[in-house]
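> example.struct
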């Protein structure tokens, strides 16, 4: 007896606006076409306006001589330097203050966030006063305060405040001894890299051992000890030497050492103080998000308060802390552009300010500046998202 095929043929899909899938595709195409047409209109309108004003466009100005001075630069700069070098000066100055600000603000913010949750009444109240005061004062006013009311009120060069280790501070900035390592010191740097790599290897081995046996290994202490021992051995065997060039007061200013202008000091200090207050609140909210039962469980195991915080609470709080912490890092990087208000030669001041006024290439310069901040933001977000994925809870 012949079998009867009861399977029904697949229904033919009809493309209709009543179909949500087809309707979604149509909407996406319309939006894409609208964006392309809008960009084309902007480009054509800009080109027409430039032609009407008899202005040229392009990036050829980057190869021309800048002809202006920059007060602070990480590499040699003179009036004969080019505009592309001015762009690099502004970029490196921005990245320098952003990197220092992120590092110090993270340390201070974590300390303040934990201090606000302290059982000590005085410590908790002092942290609260600091956070609530700093958060509610605009950053620009704080920069004006540190620059005009603090650093510019310092004594003159000849009456500089002398701090330990040949450190001087006056109204012209902060002067530090300059380290001068010899050629053999490159072996010490190599030992540092090897020590960090071994530290990472120990951490991975300890994590696998913990998951396999449940026994914890002192990763931090072991890695730090190994790295210091390796550096000390290589230092002794290579005969590496580091001398320090202290700043020396001459007739009108200090000579030698490292000179940090007051604009840099005020901007870095202001960014750290301001951003740390927001990071502290992020850390506090992340710690409070951890269930109190986790703390009680750690306490029942006999862990001390510091160990409970370091081994149980903070690792779980990081999955809550990292996303808003990323936003604070991005805000700090973008807030570094306020350095233009106090004369710090960052990207906006040097390139979008002086270079733009001299060349008149507003579109090109603003586009390059926007691209820099976009790239820095995306790079910071990518790094923090990678770290967030590492600390996220893995469900089984």
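> example.seq
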């Amino acid at each position: 007896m012949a079998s009867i095929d009861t399977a029904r043929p697949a229904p033919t899909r009809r493309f209709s606006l009543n179909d949500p899938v087809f309707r979604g595709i149509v909407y996406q195409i319309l939006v894409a076409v609208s964006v392309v047409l809008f960009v084309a209109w902007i480009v054509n309108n800009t080109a027409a306006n430039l032609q009407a004003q008899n202005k040229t466009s392009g990036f050829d100005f980057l190869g021309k001589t800048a002809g202006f001075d920059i007060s602070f630069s990480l590499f040699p700069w003179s009036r004969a330097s080019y505009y592309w070098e001015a762009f690099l000066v502004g970029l490196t100055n921005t990245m320098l203050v952003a990197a220092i600000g992120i590092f110090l603000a993270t340390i201070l913010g974590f300390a303040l966030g934990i201090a606000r949750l302290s059982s000590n009444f005085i410590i908790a109240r002092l942290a609260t006063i600091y956070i609530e005061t700093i958060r509610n004062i605009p950053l620009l006013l704080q920069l004006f305060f540190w620059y005009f009311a603090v650093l510019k009120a310092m004594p003159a060069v000849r009456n500089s405040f002398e701090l330990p280790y040949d450190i001087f501070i006056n109204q012209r900035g902060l002067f530090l001894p300059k380290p001068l390592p010899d050629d053999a010191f490159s072996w010490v740097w190599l030992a540092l890299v090897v020590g960090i790599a071994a530290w990472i290897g120990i951490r991975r081995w300890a994590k696998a051992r913990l998951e396999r046996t449940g026994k914890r290994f002192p990763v931090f202490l072991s890695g730090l000890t190994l790295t210091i021992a390796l550096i000390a051995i290589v230092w002794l065997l290579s005969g590496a030497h580091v001398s320090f060039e202290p700043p020396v007061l001459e007739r009108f200013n200090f000579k030698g050492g490292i000179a940090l202008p007051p604009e840099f000091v005020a901007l870095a200090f202001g960014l750290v103080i301001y951003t740390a207050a927001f990071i502290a609140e992020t850390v506090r909210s992340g710690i409070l998000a951890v269930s109190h039962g986790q703390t009680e469980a750690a306490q029942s195991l006999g862990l001390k308060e510091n160990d409970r915080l370091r081994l149980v609470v903070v690792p779980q709080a990081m999955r809550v802390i990292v996303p808003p912490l990323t936003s604070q890092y991005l805000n700090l990087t973008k807030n570094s552009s306020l350095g233009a208000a106090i004369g710090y030669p960052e990207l906006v001041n040097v390139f979008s300010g002086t270079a733009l006024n001299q060349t008149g290439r507003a579109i090109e310069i603003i586009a390059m500046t926007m691209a820099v901040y976009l790239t820095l933001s995306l790079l910071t977000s990518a790094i923090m998202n990678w770290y967030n994925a590492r600390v996220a809870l893995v469900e089984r």
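> remarks
The mean pLDDT is 86.
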